[in-house]
Design a protein that fits this description.
Blueprint: H1 2-35, H2 43-57, H3 62-66, E1 71-74, E2 82-84, E3 99-101, E4 108-113, E5 126-131, E6 148-159, E7 167-174, E8 179-187, E9 194-201, E10 204-215, E11 219-227, E12 230-235, E13 238-245, E14 252-259, E15 275-287, E16 290-294, E17 363-369, E18 373-375, E19 378-380, E20 385-389, E21 394-399, E22 411-416, E23 422-426, E24 430-432, E25 436-438, E26 443-450, E27 456-463, E28 477-482, E29 488-492, E30 496-498, E31 501-503, E32 508-515, E33 521-528, E34 540-548, E35 556-562, E36 565-567, E37 570-572, E38 576-581, E39 591-595, E40 606-613, H4 638-647, E41 655-661
Parallel strand pairs: 35-41
Antiparallel strand pairs: 1-2, 1-5, 3-4, 4-15, 5-14, 6-11, 6-15, 7-8, 7-14, 8-9, 9-10, 11-12, 12-13, 15-16, 17-20, 17-40, 18-19, 20-21, 22-23, 23-26, 24-25, 26-27, 28-29, 29-32, 30-31, 32-33, 34-35, 34-41, 35-38, 36-37, 38-39
């Protein structure tokens, strides 16, 4: 018992001593905390306090992101209203539909609709920051001759206008009177998810190409650096091998969404006009080493996981021409709702001269002819387009020109756009319903509501040839294709002179549009000389062209040509299609791809050519609306996406041209 009492007594003394020590330590910490102006907190209290502190650090206003007040904002509303720091409203706390934080609060969204208000010196709307001094009250101004000046911006372009000029300027250097140089994003007219990024040089819109493979929603990073009357550029953190030598003063930087399609409204599903939208994630400006703003930590590659873009503008209703494949492909007019003459199987006899390259299964070849004809009891005229299915060996009438007012015309060039619309040119000038008189150097866009034996739809002027130098008799368009980057590939009936280029009807020209429709403008370049394709006889003429850009080993060119082509141990004529690999390392050596004699097209002369993979069903073509003032394609890219997925294993791009004898 004595031992137990001693044990309990000792334990009690030890416990009391320990308690005294703990209380002393707590008092010491409390005194220290009080001397520091704070209060000692328990763990639970500290966690709660930390949450409150983090919440207080969250961004409240767009301008908070870039940590700078050295800007003013121009809006596409209220007569191009300017919002300044300290003004009413105050830019430091301003946000609206045109200028706001994104949902993840790591970017500022700039939005400008095509029908937005513009400044007095421009016809284009903008939601754009203009450089000011540090307090945001005075316009910034500097010179290229003195000091060093730079701006670096990290962007993502979420949306582009969907008309004929899908372009936005995301950053620029401006002097006292005009823009000096800008970064311009130019969307493809055929693949609305794809764009090119250009550096301009004054009034030269295509000074230097940074990339033609920008995908909307991806982040990218660009920079200007000015010193010693020179402008240097960076792209995704890397120096660009391109310098502009310029002397200018009264200069300042600008960044945001400067919509280049002002006044060209295309209505969206909600009845509003289309728009350009840009997100800025980082924006830093430096003058003589003194920097303001937030710099991007790393250079984002173009292959980075894309930022989720704003839902892309979509002109409604859309057109679906090439649906996903099914077990039994059908061609326009084969359903009960649109009866046509029942096609019969074609002969399966192989061509007498076996082509080196042969059509693939599940491929459609679209052709027009210089004359009326009949294939397997299917009558067609020279204003029509026929389709041949390589899988079923069947022909079908794809586009009936007489149904839509083209009786007596002759389509001598055409191509298909991914939105289901058809581009074409005619052999002679003719009045086209809804447009009026069009020249044989013009291109018309047909937006279908039905195809096949009961073709229906609307026309609009897509390309005005006389506006860009196609004015002579020999400069009529007789071959046509459109690349993914929006360039038009064109051949003429005879000799041409455009810009500083001259040649003849064997050549292929590339036209990069700045605008389309009645006010067509853009730049010409030589795409391929006829002699480079083996079309050496001056009497030959390229009469059809299509370019497959999907294979992995390069683009494939497909052509037809008027005249007899003599290849390696074989001969071809005007009803054949030829192909070659377009490669900078090797010449284009044409091989026969398709022999018209073997597929009941032997009595015809090809004067228009296009191809697709998959099948087209006229009953799946929905109603489509022509744009109000341009020939831009719809941005419903689902058919093109499906085709790209089906072509991903192909290794080569091919070009097909028809050969015609004069």
């Amino acid at each position: 018992m004595k031992n137990n009492k001693f044990s309990w007594g000792f334990s009690l003394v030890f416990l009391c001593a320990s308690l005294v020590v703990v209380l002393a330590l707590y008092r010491t910490q409390a005194v220290q905390a009080a001397s520091n102006g704070s209060t000692a907190l328990t763990g639970v209290e500290n966690q709660g306090k930390q949450v409150q502190q983090n919440a207080s650090n969250a961004l409240q206003n767009p301008l908070d992101l870039i940590h700078s007040t050295g800007w003013k904002l121009t809006l596409p509303v209220n007569s191009a209203q300017e919002i300044k720091v300290g003004g009413n409203p105050n830019l430091a706390t301003y946000a609206s539909e045109w200028f706001h934080l994104n949902t993840t609060q790591d970017g500022i969204v700039f939005k400008a609709k095509t029908d937005g208000a513009t400044t007095s010196g421009s016809g284009n709307p903008r939601s754009e920051l203009r450089e000011m001094t540090g307090d945001g009250k005075t316009n910034a101004t500097w010179s290229s001759a003195t000091g060093t000046h730079s701006m670096e911006v990290e962007f993502a372009v979420n949306a582009l206008p969907i008309g004929s000029k899908p372009q936005v300027v995301t950053g620029q250097i401006h002097d006292a009177s005009d823009d000096v140089t800008v970064f311009r994003v130019e969307g493809s007219l055929t693949d609305r998810s794809l764009a090119s990024i250009w550096i301009t040089d004054g009034n030269t819109s295509h000074g230097h190409l940074l990339t033609n493979a920008y995908h909307l929603g991806d982040k990218y990073r660009v920079g200007f650096s000015v010193a010693g009357k020179q402008i240097h550029f960076t792209f995704n953190g890397q120096s660009v091998d391109y310098v502009q030598n310029k002397a200018f003063s009264g200069a300042y930087f600008k960044a945001g969404a400067y919509n280049q399609s002002g006044g060209n409204c295309t209505k969206l599903a909600d009845g509003q006009c289309d728009y350009a939208e840009v997100t800025i994630y980082a924006l830093q400006v430096c003058h003589d080493g003194n920097c303001t703003g937030n710099a991007a930590s790393t250079a984002p590659p173009l292959t980075a996981t894309p930022n989720t873009p704003t839902a892309m503008p979509t002109a409604l209703p859309t057109v679906t021409l090439i649906p996903s494949p099914t077990a039994t492909p059908t061609l326009p007019g084969q359903s009960s709702s649109a009866p046509t003459a029942t096609p019969t199987n074609l002969p399966t006899t192989a061509p007498t001269s076996t082509p080196t390259t042969q059509p693939k299964a599940d491929q459609l070849i679209y052709l027009s002819s210089t004359s009326d004809g009949k294939i397997n009891n299917i009558a067609f005229k020279d204003e029509d387009v026929m389709a041949y299915d390589t899988t079923t060996d069947q022909w079908q009438l794809y586009f009936d020109g007489s149904d839509v007012g083209l009786t007596g015309a002759d389509i001598d060039a055409f191509t298909l756009l991914p939105d289901s619309s058809l581009l074409f040119s005619l052999t002679t000038a003719k009045k086209v319903p809804g447009i009026g008189k069009v020249d044989d150097s013009d291109i018309v866009r047909f937006v279908p509501t039905a195809l096949g034996s009961t073709t229906a739809g609307a026309f609009e002027l897509y390309f005005a040839g006389a506006k860009v130098g196609l004015t002579e008799n020999g400069e009529d368009i007789d071959a046509l294709a459109v690349l993914k980057d929006g360039r038009l590939i064109i051949s003429t009936t005879g000799r041409y002179t455009v810009g500083n280029l001259a040649g003849d009807g064997r050549d292929l020209l590339a036209f990069t549009p700045l605008s389309l429709g009645a006010n067509t403008a853009g730049d010409w370049a030589l795409y391929r000389k006829g002699s480079e394709m083996g079309l050496n006889d001056s009497k030959m003429n390229t009469s059809g062209v299509w370019i497959d850009e999907n294979p992995l080993d390069g683009a494939h060119l497909y052509v037809s040509a008027i005249g007899r082509y003599v290849g390696d141990q074989w001969q071809g004529d005007a009803n054949d299609i030829y192909t070659c690999l377009l490669s900078p390392e090797t010449p284009c050596t044409l091989q026969r791809f398709w022999d018209g004699n073997a597929y009941t097209f032997g009595s015809e002369t090809i004067d228009g050519l296009a191809m697709t993979f998959g099948y087209a069903d006229a009953n799946l073509v929905k109603t489509a609306s022509a744009s109000e003032d341009d020939g831009g394609a719809s941005d419903d890219m689902e058919p093109a996406d499906e085709l790209a997925a089906r072509d991903e294993n192909l290794a080569v791009y091919q070009l097909f041209l028809p050969v015609v004898t004069k």
